[in-house]
């Protein structure tokens, strides 16, 4: 009894793996960007705004 050839399985699996990899990669990128990077950037910007305000106040009071 010969075994029937398996045709097209590798191609289907490849496209499923590729689409899952792209989907998960993009989702992880968005999670990092909006969950970690932008809040850290906002914190940094607020710090520099605070320093600038203090510098302006010292210049006005002097």
Distance between the termini: 98 Å
SS field, number of helical segments: 1
Q: Structural class, judged by helices and strands?
A: mainly alpha
Q: List the secondary-structure elements in sequence, H or E.
A: H
> Which range best describes the helical content: under 10%, 10-25%, 25-40%, 40-55%, 55-70% or over 70%?
over 70%
What percent of residues are in strands? Answer: under 5%
Q: Kindly state the mean pLDDT as a whole number? A: 91
- Overall spatial form: rod-shaped
- The total strand number stands at 0
The biggest beta sheet is recorded as:
none
Parts with pLDDT < 50 across at least 5 consecutive residues: none
Radius of gyration: 27 Å
Describe the protein.
The chain has 62 residues and is mostly helical. It has one helix at residues 9-61. It is rod-shaped and about 95 Å long. It starts with 8 loop residues before the first helix and ends with a helix. The model has no long low-confidence stretch (mean pLDDT 91). Keywords: Membrane, Mitochondrion, Mitochondrion inner membrane, Oxidoreductase, Transmembrane, Transmembrane helix. The chain crosses the membrane at residues 14-33. Belongs to the fungal cytochrome c oxidase subunit 7a family. Component of the cytochrome c oxidase, the last enzyme in the mitochondrial electron transport chain which drives oxidative phosphorylation.
């Amino acid at each position: 009894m010969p075994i029937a050839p398996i045709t097209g399985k590798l191609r289907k699996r490849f496209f499923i793996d590729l689409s899952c990899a792209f989907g998960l990669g993009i989702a992880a990128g968005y999670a990092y960007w909006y969950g970690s990077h932008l809040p850290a950037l906002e914190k940094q910007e607020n710090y520099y705004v605070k320093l600038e305000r203090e510098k302006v106040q010292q210049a006005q009071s002097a």
